[in-house]
UniProtKB/TrEMBL annotation:
Residues 94-479 form the AMP-dependent synthetase/ligase domain. Residues 38-90 form the Acetyl-coenzyme A synthetase N-terminal domain. This is acetate--CoA ligase. Residues 1-26 are annotated as: Disordered. It comes from Natronolimnohabitans innermongolicus JCM 12255. Its EC number is 6.2.1.1.
Length: 705
């Protein structure tokens, strides 16, 4: 463990000090979509009208009157008065423009079967399924939940919903039955599309059983459609009164369903994501702004063109798949690839074999995957012809320069620009990244903010930090792809994301520094003269400052640093969210799953450094007096987490302890638990009520490593 730890500390250091630059390859620049060197300036001068350039990539039924309405900030509205349909933009218009026979989706199943849908095929099936959904009773604005793995029926169902103006809520197939129930209840969703099962590493997983279990936790009636993915492998899948997807599509074969004209601000979909508190947040995205933004960023950053074969190797159950497997690429009329399985099945060159066979032009993945490829060795990509690649991208977490360079060399043959794209579920699309034909890449730094985005790094006082220093990433103006609210919870939307302050001196302790020991002991905080303030349940104080000339700033809860060229390096989350393999997990959600296990008294969950996953889940658990901490309890805890959230949250380690390290004011000192998990030198323990417990815990973790 200690060798790895040394290495990651060195790497972190290297990431911070990194100065190397990589120019865009000439061959790339010559053909790139966006090459206007002054685009950052022209967008800034012409803001917000600059966003017409994004809106122009779409076909509107009704032209918009105004680009931005900010009268009710932070409830901003984009392209108001305009109307359009997302499925029309992703399908019909390409068919009308002569693209009927161009491949829209190329799908590859884990066992090697392939399916290609042309734009014509895709439109037909989307219309049939849209007609079927209507027959089942789905009306405009009804939320339809899609609990499906990476099979073509998932984007088909999304587009069918979009066609009839029914927002979809996709629940990642790896999430548990409980997670499905929570999301369906929260969105009052009365329709579910799921499947019998799917393959993972060659095994058939029974997905329907999980869906049925979830449905038992839903507090209202639900109509269910089941896709038959496994054929004869699972024959008993159609229980009760569920509808068979194939039957429905056959019955509606040839149906023509006019795309419903949606107001630009009408909801396109909901996507639940982890936050600082237990309840997942239903992030609301709209039809006009979101589609314009994902189309624009696919065009400008990923350089997508209709004749490309483009592959984003993410899961559609996450925002990356929504924006950059489905909506962005299909709006531009390109060929988008989907792969059902894992990258090392049956062999560790599976992805590269797919790139070779399909002549993939653009490849977009997560750093955690790149670190796995690196660990497996370059012999796997080396045995394949990857010369079709023109651009590479990464998303989901910071990429360390070593992994960046490996990707550049062994996948891109030093001939493809890499875009390191920082963004979030809430931002809808990319926010901070280089433009591949314009900006040099600096490994480790995501890049400058995109044109039209005002990203700043500020300190705890809200002032811009000097280049080279770390602070909090803030976004200081709205953008078309932004979330509009949290479903049914406008107050939480304002509280969680927006802070009003009037002058740069306004002290905002919401911008807490997780690494400063003072902030652990909130009871010591002192009086701030002449300022209004509020305090939260953790004792954290938010000083609001004077309230004249208020501006709105959005806090994405990421720490970052900026260099003299304005390049931003994202350092990670400052809230209680762990990033495991690029997936956001709330520590509170995991803790509540653990304390739900009989015999458990208290739990603290933190993230620890992990070679491949970036971060891993570490759980520190106190059992009830009468419960002996043993293997049996450990297994129940792991099962509790898998049932409550899903296998993705499976802990790296469950550490039993008689006590948790606490400050004198009784707050759990998470920073120390993080240090233990990461194998770091332990920080200052002097403010602890029970300093001895940290050593005890550290010994246990070392012993099991
Ligand atoms: C798209 C997506 C968002 C969080 C975000 C940040 C981390 C994403 C990153 C990155 C450094 C990048 N993150 N991209 N950190 N560099 N290029 O991942 O959305 O699942 O909502 O996660 O992921 O911490 O705040 P989401």
């Amino acid at each position: 463990m200690s060798d790895e730890t040394d290495e990651s500390a060195v790497e972190l250091e290297a990431r911070l000090e990194e100065q190397e630059r990589f120019e865009p390859p000439e061959s790339f620049v010559e053909q790139a979509n966006v090459t206007d060197e002054d685009i950052h300036e022209t967008f800034a001068e012409n803001w917000p009208d600059c966003w017409e350039r994004a809106a122009d990539l779409l076909s509107w039924d009704e032209a918009y009157d105004s680009v931005l309405e900010d009268g009710d900030a932070p409830f901003y509205e984009w392209f108001t008065g305009g109307s359009l349909n997302a499925s029309y933009n992703c399908l019909d218009r390409h068919v009308e423009d002569g693209g009927k026979n161009r491949a829209a989706i190329k799908w590859e199943g884990e066992l090697g079967e392939t399916r290609t849908y042309t734009y014509g095929d895709l439109l037909n099936e989307v219309e049939s399924f849209a007609a079927a959904l209507r027959d089942l009773g789905v009306e405009e604005d009804d939320v339809v939940t899609l609990y499906l793995p990476m099979i073509p029926e998932l984007p088909i169902a999304m587009l069918a919903c979009a066609r009839i103006g029914a927002p979809h809520s996709v629940v990642f197939a790896g999430f548990s039955a409980d997670a499905l129930a929570t999301r369906m209840n929260s969105a009052d969703s009365e329709y579910l599309v799921t499947c019998d099962g799917y393959y993972r590493r060659g095994d058939a997983l029974n997905h329907k059983r999980k869906a049925d279990e979830g449905l038992r936790g839903v507090d209202h009636d639900v109509q269910t459609v089941v896709v038959d993915r496994l054929g004869d492998e699972l024959t008993h899948f159609l229980g009760n009164d569920a509808h068979d997807y194939d039957d429905l599509v056959d019955e509606h074969e040839g149906a023509s369903v006019d795309p419903v004209s949606r107001d630009a601000e009408d909801m396109l979909f909901l996507m639940y994501t982890s936050g600082t508190t237990g309840q997942p947040k239903g992030v609301k995205h709209t039809t006009g702004g979101y589609l314009a933004y994902t189309a624009w960023t696919s065009h400008a950053v990923l350089d997508v063109e209709p004749e490309d074969t483009y592959w984003c190797a993410a899961d559609i159950g996450w925002i990356t798949g929504h924006s950059y497997i489905v909506y962005g690429p299909l709006a531009l009329g390109t060929t988008t690839m989907m792969y059902e399985g894992t990258p090392d099945y049956p062999e560790r060159d599976r992805l590269w074999e797919l790139v070779e066979r399909n002549r993939v032009d653009i490849f977009y993945t997560a750093p955690t995957a790149i670190r796995s490829f690196m660990k497996w060795g370059e012999q796997y990509p080396d045995r394949r012809d990857l010369s079709s690649l023109r651009l590479l991208g990464t998303v989901g977490e910071p990429i360390n320069p070593r992994a960046w360079k490996w990707y550049y060399k062994h996948i891109g043959d030093e001939n493809c620009p890499i875009v390191d794209t920082w963004w979030q579920t809430e931002t809808g699309g990319m926010m901070v990244t280089t433009l591949p034909a314009i900006n040099d890449a600096k490994p480790g730094a995501a890049g400058p903010a995109l044109p039209g985005i005002d990203a700043r790094i500020v300190d705890a006082e809200g002032e811009r930090v000097d280049p080279g220093n770390a602070g909090y990433l803030t976004i200081n103006n709205p953008w078309p792809g932004m979330l509009r609210t949290l479903y049914d919870n406008d107050d939480r939307f304002v509280d969680e994301y927006w802070t009003e302050y009037s002058d740069p001196d306004a002290v905002d302790r919401q911008l807490r520094d997780p690494h400063s020991s003072e902030s652990e002991d909130a009871d010591d905080w002192v009086y701030f003269p002449e300022d209004g303030a509020k305090i939260d349940e953790d004792g954290y104080i938010t000083v609001l400052g004077r309230v004249d000339d208020v501006i709105n700033v959005s806090f994405p809860e990421d720490g970052a640093k900026i260099d003299e060229d304005g390049y931003i390096t994202v350092l990670g989350r400052v809230d209680d969210v762990i990033n495991v393999s690029g997936h956001r997990l709330g520590t509170m959600e995991i803790e509540s799953a653990i304390v739900g296990v009989p015999g458990v008294a208290e739990a603290a969950v933190v993230g620890g450094d992990h070679d491949v996953k970036g971060e891993a889940v570490y759980a520190y658990v106190i059992t009830e007096d009468e419960t002996e901490p043993n293997e049996d309890v450990r297994e129940r805890i792991v099962a509790g987490i898998e049932d409550g959230i899903g296998p993705i949250a499976r802990p790296e380690e469950v550490v039993f302890t008689p006590e948790l390290p606490k400050t004198r004011s009784g707050k759990i000192m998470r920073r120390l638990l993080e240090d233990v998990a990461s194998g770091n030198e332990l920080g200052n323990t002097s403010t602890l009520r029970n300093p001895e417990v940290v050593e005890e815990i550290a010994e246990q973790v070392d012993a099991s490593a």
